[in-house]
Design goal:
The complex is a heterodimer of chains A (305) and B (435). Chain A has 305 residues and is of the alpha/beta class. Chain A is built from eleven helices and nine strands. Classes of the chains: A alpha/beta (305), B alpha/beta (435).
């Protein structure tokens, strides 16, 4: 059976996005049933994760797959088994798909070179987090009334771009969907050559709204690690890079990959406000990941459209 | 009286302003705090006869310690600004190593308010780059800027870890602030004077030139890489000056200054073993003095800044090893440089005015600076022929730790005008003087 890896969204095309989002919608509406019956999905999480792991597990089970889950705690991974040894073992056990989360960029691609199973990147270091960006596009397109409504929208990605795998998947995905993207961060939270993206780089949420942002995508600030060294204080960060109620008067939408630092990148009263897509994003995870697993394993070759 | 109370004519001074090319005897009319007219035969009800005096754009000192808050026994905004005015300085940047350190927006806004009330000259606040100048946690630079901070610096200590300095530069770039860098590697700077012949013979622990040069190189490499606006202050060695030149040629957004004392004094002084002569960076051998002077002449170093650092007598009348480092600078800067460099043919008077007024003025103001119609009337009047002896009891500063005490100097500031007001006056003129 042909397998299809989901390693990166760098270079993703508009048709591919439409295909995944369409199939996600079919899963969500029940038009696609237990497409993964008889398939084995392996969740190999070399880094702590709650929501992504749970979301993938639900997606696999709801589509009828057998699920093997190994995480850093209480497994061979914790005992120091190398990435490749783990992959070879899973391959030998007959996994059809390996969903991998790892602290280093490139781990998913390395895995794919050593297994016959389809590999789905569930986040590797600062590299990529394709299913997060896909579920974000799904949630946003649903909120706007369809995939075609994404084109021409302006989205500002705010926060720690430097360390963010989410940002590295979001940027090519949003652009492939026809959106205009701006980055909003201090230079300490951007790669030195951030200009490589060819995107506007702005210095506050206010500037993003002046630029015309209609969606504000806030990234999580790892505040324990960043304050002091790269950001002076939560107060200053929140002042310039935090999304507050006052930013929503013109109807901007707010997104965040979770978990949210309330009062840092988003004020508490924004998280569950009408402008917030955050609950929708979480809810979109299962449908999108079901679609990705179905496409990855070849269980569904084309969107049932 | 028909003319406006804030209008007068300075008549007959020799105006020298390299930025506008003015060089000759002419009259200057000031009105509403600005230069209104420059020409010959200007009339006004109130006129100042400046015959035989020189008129320059007001001097600008981007490096001063006015010891406020915390050590008002040594200097205050009032006394520091009076000393600045007596030295012909019309704008000054205050460094943040006070007690407490200027690292919080509320300290900056408090200082800005006090400057408005207490300072005779324009004064700008440089805030700390890192909390407590410790080189660890970034300060809230954007909030500091909103509170009125002009730049950021860990002056007095220097940022020791390159990675920390780099992030500081990157964040300052985002905040739109210039980083003023005191270049000193503390792992090398273990002594109290320059580690040279004089230190060897006198038996005083020395800090090698590399303490400054290695830190300067690091700061310049990081400036070039990050694209931050960086100012290297008090360059004191020939090698550090050459490094500045090298990086300027490679497109780094860098400026640099040196001090009057590094341009006029050498480490020979430490053979006296007097605590008065301790300063940081330390006085260097004559080769460095000459190299730094050449760099200033050639434009590699952009301007002069005094590092005016008042200290109580009890902190200077000590053995070198126990004395606090630092010299007074405001009141002697022009005369020391005029006497030691211009009169000896090492620097032209025009370049001295450029490096004390025009270049630092453009740096502070972020635009044109000079004696031109419409520009703020910040001016300095000097009697180049006056000889005077530097005496502790005639200094305006609250402290008296000048390295030129007892020295006979040529050229004396006789009048200082800030925004059209005469804030310092040794001419006997009696108009526009602030109470």
């Amino acid at each position: 059976l042909p397998v299809r890896n989901f390693l990166t969204l760098e270079g993703v095309g508009r048709e591919e996005l439409k295909e995944v989002l369409g199939l996600a919608r079919d899963h969500s509406s029940g038009r696609v049933g237990h497409s993964l019956i008889g398939r084995t999905v392996c969740l190999a999480f070399f880094e702590a994760s709650t929501r992504t792991a749970v979301s993938f597990e639900l997606a696999a089970r709801r589509t009828g797959a057998d699920v093997i889950s190994i995480s850093e705690k209480g497994s061979a991974i914790q005992k120091g088994e190398s990435l490749l040894d783990t992959v070879v073992t899973l391959d030998a056990l007959g996994a059809d798909a390996i969903v991998i989360r790892h602290p280093s960029a490139g781990a998913a691609a390395l895995t794919a070179r050593h297994t016959r199973a389809a590999v789905v990147n569930a986040g590797d270091g600062r590299g990529q987090h394709p299913t997060q960006a896909l579920l974000d596009l799904y949630a946003l397109s649903n909120a706007l009334g369809g995939f075609y409504e994404l084109a021409g929208r302006r989205i500002a990605v705010v926060g720690d771009i430097l360390h963010s795998r989410v940002a590295r998947s979001l940027v090519p995905a949003f652009r492939a969907a026809g959106m205009e993207v701006a980055l909003v961060a201090p230079d300490t939270l951007l790669p030195l050559e951030a200009r490589a993206w060819g995107l506007p780089i702005l210095s506050s949420v206010d500037d993003a709204l002046d630029w015309g942002a209609d969606t504000l995508y806030a990234l999580r600030l790892q505040k324990e690690r960043m304050t002091g060294a790269r950001v002076p204080s939560v107060a200053e960060y929140a002042r310039y890079y935090g999304v507050a109620k006052r930013h929503l008067t013109a109807g901007a939408l707010v997104m965040h990959p979770g978990p949210v630092n309330r009062g840092v990148e988003i004020q508490g009263d924004v998280v569950l406000s009408g402008a917030s897509l955050i609950p929708t994003q979480v809810a979109s995870g299962v449908a999108v990941r079901s679609a990705v697993l179905a496409l990855a394993t070849g269980a569904v070759e084309k969107a049932a459209a | 009286v028909t003319s406006a109370p804030n209008e007068f004519v300075i008549r007959g001074a020799h105006v020298l302003d390299p930025s506008s090319g003015l060089d000759g005897v002419m009259d200057v009319r000031l009105s509403a705090g600005r230069v209104a007219e420059v020409g010959e035969g200007l009339r006004g009800i109130r006129a100042l006869d400046a015959d035989s005096l020189s008129l320059f754009p007001g001097f600008v000192d981007v490096h001063a310690h006015w010891r406020t808050p915390g050590r008002e026994d040594e200097e205050t905004i009032e006394s520091g600004s009076a000393a600045a005015a007596a030295g012909g300085f019309t704008s000054v940047v205050m460094m943040p190593n006070t007690e407490p350190v200027v690292d919080k927006p509320i300290v900056v806004s408090g200082l800005v308010r006090r400057v408005e009330q207490e300072s005779r000259v324009r004064a700008y606040v440089s805030a700390a780059l890192h909390e407590g100048l410790k080189g660890e946690r970034l300060t809230e630079m954007r909030l500091l800027k909103e509170a009125g901070a002009y730049g950021v610096s860990d002056d007095g200590l220097g940022t020791q870890v390159a990675g920390v300095l780099r992030n500081g530069m990157l964040y300052a770039r985002s905040a739109g602030l210039t980083v003023i860098v005191h270049c000193e590697d503390s792992s090398l700077a273990t002594g109290v004077v320059h580690d040279g012949v004089a230190a060897a013979l006198a038996g005083v622990p020395g800090s090698p030139g590399s303490a400054e040069d290695a830190a300067t190189a690091t700061a310049l490499v990081l400036a070039a890489e990050t694209g931050a606006k960086v100012h290297i202050t008090h360059v004191s060695t020939a090698l550090s000056a050459a490094l500045v030149g090298f990086f300027k040629g490679r497109g780094a957004c860098v400026t640099a200054d040196t001090t009057p004392h590094h341009l006029t004094l050498t480490d020979e002084r430490i053979s006296t073993l007097e605590g008065l002569y301790r300063v940081n960076p330390p006085l260097r051998p004559d080769g460095d003095r000459l190299g730094v002077g050449e760099a200033l002449r050639d434009g590699i170093l952009d301007f002069v800044a005094t590092d005016h650092a008042p200290h109580a007598a009890s902190e200077k009348e000590l053995p070198l090893e126990e004395a606090a480092p630092g010299f007074l600078g405001h009141e002697t800067a022009f005369a020391a440089l005029y006497t030691e460099l211009v009169r000896k043919g090492e620097l032209s008077l025009s370049r001295l005015v450029e490096t004390m007024a025009c270049a630092p003025g453009r740096w502070v103001r972020g635009g044109a600076y000079g004696v031109s119609v419409g520009a703020p009337a910040d001016l300095t009047l000097v009697d180049l022929s006056e000889e005077w002896t530097v005496r502790a009891d005639s200094l305006v500063s609250r402290s008296s730790n000048s390295p030129y005490l007892g020295r006979r100097l040529e050229g004396r500031v006789v009048g200082t005008v800030v925004g059209g007001e005469l804030v310092y006056d040794r001419m006997g003129a009696r108009f526009g003087v602030r109470a």
